[in-house]
Design goal:
With 332 residues, the protein is α+β, with helices and mostly antiparallel strands. Helices cover 54% and strands 14% of the residues. The chain folds into three domains: 12-63; 79-180, Signal transduction histidine kinase, dimerisation/phosphotransfer (DHp) domain (Helix Hairpins, Orthogonal Bundle), CATH 1.10.287; 185-331, Heat Shock Protein 90 (2-Layer Sandwich). The strands form two sheets. The protein has a five-stranded mixed beta sheet with strand order 2-4-5-7-6. The two termini are 62 Å apart. The protein binds adenosine-5'-diphosphate and magnesium ion.
């Protein structure tokens, strides 16, 4: 099939004008030739009309087909099929509309996939502790095992894990939907870091937690509870990976435009290829690791949301030969 001769013109108005002018010129030309050959007026008009129509068909080909295919795609999308795309190689408004339409369809499809993944992940994370609890309870009911305190404690731990997971999911969904506004106020960084370090020391007596402030009277502008949640999670992760008798260092320093927090540990660190993915929901570098130690991979996703709500950035870095540095940058 030959291409549309007007394909490269980028304005639909200009295309229409060209088609109309061409049709008028052809009509006049046919009329003149008809007159010279002494044809009747009706015959001249008929021939001119047929030739003009044929020309319009040829020139305007492809100008409306993207609209029809967009209509088809929109109908398919309305009934849940997000795979349909529009093909258009013209560079006019219709072509650009087709391009924008495809872009929108891509975004919707990605969002849809994201939602499916989330539901699959959530179901998986909930199913594991529920199955374990159910199996144990069945054994107790059948009299196969006696409900010893140790057994009850394991079951309690499972329910706590379930509760933690549900709380985190709710928290994440509220953050994502903008349902929890930040309560920002200026407060001393030392309070935040000391509180986080003291808490962590209680849970990990084999580690030391050092707090470094530069300058010592550094003031942070942010939501103290939410930032506590961020640093608490970073330090909890660090404590989980750090070898015994090493130090986890919490730093806060002021640069010209930023307040930078760092949490550094001497654990194995995060593999290069996972550095950005650890902030995805449910992402863990070691999927096989039992989720009893640590959580479900939501902590850093929540942390990233909180930091970004503050207008800041969070990233993970490797320290060679081993170690992990988590960096939070907030606008000062
Ligand atoms: N300090 C660290 N050292 C090594 N790996 C880390 C560290 N912090 C986070 N990670 C990796 O990032 C993953 C995601 O962390 P997070 O979102 O807090 O989930 P969780 O703590 O529930 O596993 C962890 O499972 C771990 O694989
Ligand atoms: Mg965590």
């Amino acid at each position: 099939m030959i291409g549309n001769p007007l394909q490269r013109i980028s304005s639909i108005k200009l295309k229409f004008s060209i088609v109309i002018v061409a049709a008028v010129v052809v009509t006049l030309a046919v009329n003149e030739i008809g007159l010279a050959l002494n044809f009747r007026a009706g015959f001249r008009a008929g021939v001119a009309a047929i030739i003009a129509l044929g020309m319009v068909q040829l020139m305007a080909r492809g100008m409306t087909s993207p609209l029809r295919s967009m209509e088809r795609a929109a109908t398919a999308m309305a009934s849940g099929d997000l795979s349909e795309r529009v093909t258009s190689n013209s560079s006019d408004e219709v072509g650009r509309l087709a391009f924008a339409f495809n872009h929108m369809a891509d975004e919707l499809a990605a969002e849809d996939q994201h939602r499916r993944d989330l539901i699959a992940n959530v179901s998986h994370e909930l199913r594991t502790p529920i199955s374990a609890l159910r199996a144990t309870l069945e054994n107790v009911v059948d009299g196969v095992v006696t409900p010893e305190p140790a057994l009850l404690r394991t079951m309690l731990a499972q329910t706590e894990r379930l509760q933690r997971l549900v709380t985190q999911l709710l928290d994440l969904s509220r953050l994502e939907s903008g349902g929890t506004p930040l309560h920002r106020l200026p407060f001393p960084a030392v309070e935040l870091l000391d509180a986080v370090a003291d808490e962590a020391a209680l849970h990990s007596p084999d580690l030391t937690f050092d707090v470094v402030l530069d300058p010592p009277e550094l003031v942070v502008d942010g939501d103290p509870e939410r930032l506590h949640q961020v640093l608490g999670n970073l330090v909890e992760n660090a404590a989980r990976f750090a070898p015994d008798d090493t130090a986890v260092v919490l730093t806060a320093r002021q640069t010209s435009e930023l307040v930078v927090f760092e949490v550094v540990d001497q654990g194995p660190g995060i593999p290069e290829e996972s550095l950005s993915r650890v902030f995805d929901r449910f992402y863990r570098t070691d999927e096989a690791r039992s989720t009893d130690e640590g959580g479900s991979g939501l902590g850093l996703a929540i942390a990233r949301w909180i930091v970004e709500l503050h207008g800041g950035h969070i990233r993970a870095e490797r320290i060679e030969p081993h170690g992990c540095r988590m960096v939070v940058e907030l606008p000062a």
